TrEMBL record:
Domain of life: Eukaryota
Function: Plays a role in the assembly of the F1 component of the mitochondrial ATP synthase (ATPase).
Gene field: Atpaf2
Compartments, record wording: Mitochondrion inner membrane
GO biological process entries: mitochondrial proton-transporting ATP synthase complex assembly
Gene3D superfamilies on file: ATP12 ATPase, ATP12-like
Name of the protein in question: ATP synthase mitochondrial F1 complex assembly factor 2
Length: 247
């Protein structure tokens, strides 16, 4: 949506029957589908409130990644169920960035091997699966058992967290890098760098377009960080969540 003039002075959170709500002065925040904006954890509510409070004279919606993710989780505009979200995430394995390798130039092929092989090896050990890589345009042949293992693993997350996981995957174009990030095996900066390995190689060789590459990199880091934070804040145990609501 276009920028909008800031229409509120104060931002606060309050506890309602369904979770934590965001208040803009005396108005309760609503989703694009006019549902009450309610999030499952106090920490997530504080993070969203901070996004709204940090807006200056105009509201720049495109900078409010956590708010956008919450709206998606609440409105579910594509009307997908949990298994559809999981299958969509696992499908990225077939075109995973770190599984597609080049043979030429030799320097880039070596860079991919040195940088991507360790994270693929980590994922294979962490989830007890076979992934591999390929220089074929068809990509590697991912075993069905590997896909089912990831389906089972992702099923342990709730619907909110799954929305965040899919968001991170679409930023990095990689399920493997996303799981490494969410499992705290690699940092946001490392995950983004690995997802842009070929582009960074070309920049080092030919130079960058002044400001454009830096802007793209900062935006990608911001979206990836927000998605990862969203997953972590939505992955609280139901026991903790229930206690918060009871208190």
């Amino acid at each position: 949506p276009p920028e909008r003039k800031r229409f509120y002075q104060n931002v606060s959170i309050s506890q309602g029957e369904g979770g934590f709500e965001i208040n803009l002065d005396h108005r309760k925040l609503k989703t694009p589908q006019a549902k009450l904006f309610t999030v499952p954890s106090e920490a997530l509510a504080i993070a969203v409130a901070t996004e709204w409070d940090s807006q200056k004279d105009t509201i720049k919606f495109y900078t409010m990644h956590l708010t956008t993710l919450c709206n998606t989780a609440l409105d579910n505009p594509t009307q997908r169920n949990k298994m559809q979200l999981i299958r969509a995430a696992v499908k990225f394995l077939e075109t995973d960035t770190v599984c597609y390798r080049v043979e030429e130039p030799a320097a880039l092929a070596e860079l991919q091997k040195n940088e991507w092989d360790p994270v693929v090896a980590w994922a294979e050990k962490r989830y007890n699966v076979a992934i591999g890589s390929s220089t074929s345009i068809l990509g590697p042949n991912i075993p069905a058992s590997t896909k089912e293992t990831f389906v089972s693993h992702l099923a342990s997350y709730n619907m909110w967290a799954l929305q965040g996981i899919e968001y991170v995957i679409t930023q990095l174009k990689s399920l493997i890098l996303s799981m490494g990030l969410i499992d705290r095996h690699i940092t946001v900066e490392k995950a983004v760098l690995l997802s842009r390995l070929e582009e960074e190689y070309q920049i080092q060789r030919w130079g960058s377009v002044e400001w454009a590459h830096d802007y793209d990199l900062c935006e990608l880091c911001a979206r990836t960080a927000a998605g990862t934070l969203f997953v972590h804040l939505c992955s609280e145990s139901s026991t903790v969540k229930h206690k918060l609501l009871q208190d």
